Amino acid sequence: MPHQEVYLALLDEEASVAYHDLAAALGDEAAANEAQKRAGTIHATIEREYADADKGCSDFSHGMDGKPDRTRTVYPSIAWWSATASGDAARPLEHSASCLKELSAHTLETDWGLRDVASDEPIFDGMSYHQGSVWPLFTGWAALAEYRGGQPLAVEQMLRENVDLTWASDLGAVTELLSGDTYVPFGRSTSHQLWSSTMVIVPVMRGVFGVTTDASGDALTVNPHLPANWPDATIKNLHLGGQMVQLKMERKQDGLQVTAVSDGPAPTLRSDLAGARPSA
């Protein structure tokens, strides 16, 4: 039995980062510093106990006996879930490049999403609930990881895999999980699973459009990664506090122009991408 899985360890770190941000926003410096320190301690522990140089990414778990379970899984992708003001993951794994490569490899990747366990692992079973099945939830994690890791071609494929699931079961819904061997939802799969549908929207908003909202400061950060064949895009009904905002993105000869129209005071629009500047 595992003492702790890398997924839960990373969530613990992510929660500490989020608590730091909440405490800082509320002006509680002591709580913010404590949360930041805790996140750093967890990050160092993860790198010490889970990093696997031989396999290239992170082990699945740290065992009760102190030994690692070296099974390759999709779970390290959760490390890229949070983002800082720079648009990068809050605390990406120190072996990020090899992890991103592993997530897009054929052992995890299928045409309908990512397996939770690599197909060449001894425990892999494409019909097992958690040892080889495809969860749109995990595909969404990996998609966001690839975006924040600067791999837009890999993530566009992952995103399309989740979008295509809209037509695999009940129309307009995305199923809970599918076989890791064939493009078939499990008979016991919840056909309308909210976290699966969410993973169509989240990678689009946070990855393709790169939108981060700050209602307290009436600000929008936009770090877009539009597919090369998109000349323009529009986001409607974007909530920013009590405002509704429309974002328009349009390719120009010298780059991508982003404009915001609000039904209230004009929001502050900013970007962290290199070369970004306000229009005249």
Explain how this protein is built.
The protein has 6 helices and 11 strands. The protein is 32% helix and 18% strand. It is globular and about 55 Å long. The protein has helices spanning 6-25, 29-50, 96-103, 136-148, 152-164, 194-208, and strands spanning 2-5, 61-63, 68-69, 109-110, 113-114, 211-214, 219-222, 232-240, 243-252, 255-262, 268-270. The chain has 280 residues and is of the alpha+beta class. Helix 4 (136-148) runs antiparallel to helix 5 (152-164).
Write a short abstract of this structure.
By secondary structure, the chain is α+β, with helices and mostly antiparallel strands.
Keywords for this entry:
single chain, 280 residues, alpha+beta, Glycosyltransferase, 2 domains, 3-stranded antiparallel sheet, 3-stranded mixed sheet, 18% strand, globular
* Relative helix content: 25-40%
According to DSSP, the number of beta strands is 11
**How many whole angstroms does the radius of gyration measure?**
20 Å
- Main sheet summary: 3 strands, antiparallel
The domain tally reads 2
What value does the average pLDDT take?
A: 89
The share of residues in extended strands comes to 15-25%
CATH architecture of the largest domain: Alpha/alpha barrel
Low-confidence runs of at least 5 consecutive residues: 85-89
Give the terminus-to-terminus CA distance: 61 Å
Q: Strand order within the widest sheet?
A: 1-2-3
**How many DSSP helices?**
6
Q: Could you say what the CATH topology of the largest domain is called?
A: Glycosyltransferase
Judged by helices, strands and strand pairing, the structural class is: alpha+beta
What would you call the shape? globular
- Which CATH class of the largest domain is shown? Mainly Alpha
- Please write the string of helix (H) and strand (E) elements: EHHEEHEEHHHEEEEEE
